[in-house]
């Protein structure tokens, strides 16, 4: 009888030890799996959060260098009524200057070419402009009105940093007009005509279109 009890106790002890070992092994495996999955979940959570609050530094896709795009272009001047309370400062924190353009679909620092003349993206347009829109900085409102609204072909030249110096000089609006195709001339002249009417009204009323412009020192 005693021998049977001893054998039974030994068997129970072995079973308990095996169960404890199995439980610890499974726990270790579970912990190992959970640990390996945490970083992926963590990254996904941050990606989702950043996409919602718009803080992704390079959330705009990098279009391959050499790509040509047709864009709708307008112009703006250093006036708080066309930008914000700091019309001389770009969205990148640099000072506006000839060659600066605003665009929402390209990363800041993108260098583009219009008619073989280089520009750099350092500013942003109003968020309602979704798609291929650019805004060319010009030193006065009258020049921006003369520029009007145009369809242009741009080429992605390189990806630099805001503040990079551009080698090529910035052309006047008349220089850019030379690359507009004949099929677009009618719509362009309509735009220019509308701008001329607006300028004429301003001149008749003796109102200076540049009265709100500020001088931005480099």
Automatic annotation (TrEMBL):
Residues of the signal peptide: 1-22
The source's domain of life comes to: Bacteria
Instruction: Give the record's keywords alphabetically.
Output: Signal
Report what the protein is called.
3D domain-containing protein
């Amino acid at each position: 009888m005693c021998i049977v009890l001893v054998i039974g106790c030994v068997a129970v002890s072995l079973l308990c030890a095996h169960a404890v070992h199995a439980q610890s092994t499974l726990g270790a495996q579970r912990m190992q799996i959970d640990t390996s999955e945490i970083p992926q979940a963590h990254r996904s959570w941050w990606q989702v959060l950043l996409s919602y609050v718009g803080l992704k530094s390079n959330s705009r896709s990098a279009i391959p260098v050499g790509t040509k795009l047709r864009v709708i272009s307008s112009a703006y001047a250093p006036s708080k009524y066309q930008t914000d309370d700091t019309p001389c400062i770009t969205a990148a924190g640099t000072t506006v200057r000839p060659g600066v353009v605003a665009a929402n679909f390209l990363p800041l620092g993108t260098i583009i070419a219009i008619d073989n003349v280089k520009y750099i993206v350092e500013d942003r347009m109003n968020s309602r402009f979704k798609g291929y829109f650019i805004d060319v900085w010009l030193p006065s409102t009258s020049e921006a009105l003369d520029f009007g609204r145009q369809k242009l072909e741009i080429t992605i030249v390189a990806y630099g940093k805001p503040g990079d110096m551009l080698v090529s000089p910035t052309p006047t609006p008349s220089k850019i007009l030379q690359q507009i195709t004949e099929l677009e001339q009618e719509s362009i002249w309509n735009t220019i005509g509308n701008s001329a009417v607006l300028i004429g009204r301003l001149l008749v009323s003796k109102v200076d279109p540049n009265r709100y412009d500020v001088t931005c020192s480099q």
